[in-house]
Amino acid sequence: MGQSNQTSSRDFVFLGFSNERRTNIWLFAAFFPLYLIALGGNTLIIIAIRIDSRLNTPMYFFLSNLSFLDICYTTTVVPQLLVHFWSSHKIISFSQCMAQLYASLSLGGIEFLLLAAMAYDRYVAVCQPLHYMVIMNRGVCIQMVVASWMAGFLNGLVQTVFTMHLRFCSFTAINHFVCELLAVLKVACSDTFANEISILVTGFLILLIPCIVVLLSYVYIISAILRIHSSKGRQRAFSTCTSHLTVVTLCYGTAMFAYLRPKSKTSSNQDKILTVIYAVVTPMLNPIIYSLRNKEVKGALSKAIRKSILSESK
After folding, report:
1. How far from 245 is each of 19, 201, 251, 295, 300, CA to CA, in Å?
2. Helix (H) or strand (E) holding 281
3. Are 205 and 116 in contact (CB under 8 A)?
4. Which of 312, 298, 311, 310 lies closest to 49 in space, CA to CA?
C-alpha cells in the first residue's frame, strides 16, 4: 500500500490550549470577539475604499487586497479553533489538515509579498512624487498583486507537497490548535531534512527578500524625509508611512521569530502564541492601525458607516 494511502485515512488530534472546559469557555469568549472585529474591520476598510473616490489610489488598492487577505487568513484558523473549544475530541483528518496547511502557508506568504509591494509604493510616493502615478499605474499595481498571490500559492503548494510525503505514526497528537507547519513536522516519524531545507529556501525567497525590499525602501524614504526643510512637510511625508511600518514590524517580526530561530529554541507554547499573533491579532489590528493613523481612511469609514445606517433606516 502506498504511503499516501496510509496517511490519508488517519486523523490528527490537536492538544490545543487546555483540556479544562472552563478555560476553553474563557478562551472562546476571548477569541470570538477578536474574530468578529477582524472580519468587521477589514470588511469596512474594503467597503470604504470601494465607495470613496478619494481612495482610488495605488496605496489603497494594496490596502484593500491586504484587508481581503486578512479576512481569508483568519478564517482558515479561527472558526475551527472556536468549534474545538467546545469539543472534547479535537480531531482533524489528514486531508483537512493538509488543506489548512496549504491555505495558511499560501496566505501568509502572500501577506509578506503584499507588504513589500506596499513599501515600494511608499518609496515611489515619497522619493519620486512627480512620477508616482506614472510608475505606479493601475497595470503595474495589478501585476504586483497577481505576482504576490501566485508566488504565495506556489509557496504553499511546495511546502504542502513535501509534508504530504512524510510518514506519520499510528497515533498523531499535534501539540497545537491548528495544522501549523512546524507543529506538523514535529510529529512526523520519517526524516524531515528535506522539509527543513525547503523551509529555509522558501523562507529566504518569501520572507527575507521582501523584508530586504521593505528595509531598503524605508532607508530611501527616511533619507528623503530628512532632506525636507519644513517640519510640517516632514511630518506629512512620514505620516503616510507610519501605518504600513507598524504592520510590517508586527507581521515580519512574528514570522521571523517563528521560522528563522534555531530549532533548539522552539517550544510548543511559544509556537501557539505566535500563531495567535499572526492569525488572529494581526488581522484584527491592521484595520485599526490604518484607520487610526490615516485621516482619509477615517473619513471614508465614517462615510461608509453613515451610508449603511441610512440604508437600514429606509
Report:
1. 38, 25, 10, 17, 21
2. none
3. no
4. 298
The DSSP secondary-structure symbol of 129 reads G
Q: Which residues contact 78 (CB under 8 A, 6 or more apart)?
A: 31, 34, 35, 38, 279, 280
pLDDT in tens, the chain (314 residues): 344 444 344 788 998 888 888 888 999 999 999 999 999 999 988 988 888 777 888 989 999 999 999 999 999 999 999 999 988 778 898 999 999 999 999 999 999 999 999 999 999 998 998 999 999 999 999 999 999 999 999 999 999 999 998 888 766 889 899 999 988 998 888 888 889 899 889 888 998 899 999 999 999 998 988 888 777 777 777 777 888 888 888 888 888 777 666 665 566 778 888 889 888 999 998 888 877 666 677 676 676 666 666 666 65
Phi, psi of 32 (to 5 degrees): -60, -45
First vs last C-alpha separation in the chain: 64
CB–CB of 72/107 below 8 Å? yes
H and E: helices and strands count for the chain:
14, 3
Q: Is the separation of the CB atoms in 28 and 289 below 8 Å?
A: no
- CA dist 277 and 74 (Å) reads 11
E strand or H helix at 227, and its extent?
none
Sole residue written with cell 488543506: 99
Give the contacts of 111 (CB within 8 A, at least 6 positions apart).
66, 69, 70, 73, 152, 251
CA dist 212 and 219 (Å) reads: 10
CATH numbers and ranges of domains, the chain: 3-313 (1.20.1070.10)
State how far the Cα of 13 lies from the Cα of 88, in Å rounded to an integer: 11
| H/E element, 188 | none
pTM for the model stands at: 0.87
Residue with cell 477615517: 298
